[in-house]
Specification:
The longest helix is centred in the middle third of the chain and has 37 residues. It is elongated, with a radius of gyration of 21 Å. It contains 13 helices and no strands. 79% of the residues lie in helices and 0% in strands. By secondary structure, it is mainly alpha-helical.
């Protein structure tokens, strides 16, 4: 089994895509951490300074309700644990997608270069091969998480230190967000594995992964907000976003509420793990039964 895992990791390391992805992950994590640091700076100001910089309306022309809404946002976003957790998970929005795409490529490359048949001839027990591939997917996802986290902690740590705030790595909510972020990377990797098995075409599977990610995390989430604001102003409409894997990832790793009335973080974890289990199970079943010639 150890040799099979080593073989799968060797295949991964020989892919130029892996090294390009790792470099892209490091760069994205640093850039996103810098952006989040700038955002955090605005919320770490005193409320009156934040208010004057956040909107163009003069303070005296604002209603009490408007001021109350802005204060509630400021209090939520300026919480030390939330700021530290946001900084240290900065690469998530880009990294989860990369984790899924690398897993897709690990599987579809076998179909593209017709090496899967040879692999099964050398190791006829397909279950062991599939297990080795899943381990390689999980390890590659953890590697991307590590690269993203190191870049985020470097930039975020410097920012918090220069602002006189503690690093916050010893806080339970911050450490929990970082570790849940690792779980999210792994689950997206397993989901990508299942997608790669389901769609043999490398290009089609990669495009599908990208479309599914952005549709679930950006476009459809925006549609839920519009539906809530213009059609049905019910809390459950916004809470239903947790069923989208991209939103579930954010809810899972955000200390406190991602948005007003958002479900608890464990709800996002359950949904995301569910997607991973379905993707992993479907991929395993197909590889065990499908002809690969």
């Amino acid at each position: 089994m150890r040799r099979l895992i080593g073989s799968e990791l060797l295949k991964l390391r020989t892919l130029p895509t892996w090294w390009v992805t790792g470099a892209a992950m490091a760069g994205a994590a640093v850039l996103l951490a810098l952006w989040n640091s700038w955002q955090a700076h605005t919320f770490m100001q005193p409320f009156e300074d934040y208010l004057s910089g956040a909107i163009l309306t003069p303070r005296e022309e604002m209603s009490a309700e408007q001021v109350g809404t802005m204060r509630e946002l400021w209090e939520t976003q300026s919480a030390p644990g939330r700021i530290a957790a946001t900084l240290y998970t900065s690469g998530q929005s880009f990294g989860l997608l990369l984790s899924g795409v690398v897993a897709v490529l690990l599987v579809t490359n076998e179909y593209h270069y017709r090496t899967l048949t040879a692999t099964f001839l050398v190791a006829p027990r397909r279950g062991r091969v599939v297990a080795a591939k899943l381990v390689a997917v999980v390890l590659s996802s953890a590697g991307l998480w590590l690269v993203a986290t190191l870049g985020s902690v470097l930039v975020g740590g410097v920012f918090l230190t220069t602002r006189g705030a503690g690093l916050g790595l010893g806080r339970g909510d911050v450490l929990g967000a970082v570790l849940l972020n690792l779980a999210a990377y792994m689950v997206w990797g397993v989901f990508g594995f299942g997608l790669g098995v389901l769609i043999r075409s490398q290009t089609a599977a990669t495009v599908t992964a990208v479309v599914l990610y952005f549709l679930s995390s950006v476009v459809v989430a925006f549609a839920f907000q519009v539906l809530h604001d213009l059609v049905l102003e019910k809390d459950w409409v916004l809470q239903a976003q947790v069923l989208l894997p991209g939103v579930a990832s954010q809810i899972m790793t955000t200390p406190g509420e991602l948005f007003a009335g958002a479900p608890a973080s464990w709800t996002g974890a359950v949904v995301l793990v569910g997607y991973g289990l379905v993707g992993g199970f479907a991929g395993t079943l197909l590889l065990l039964r499908r002809d690969v010639v």
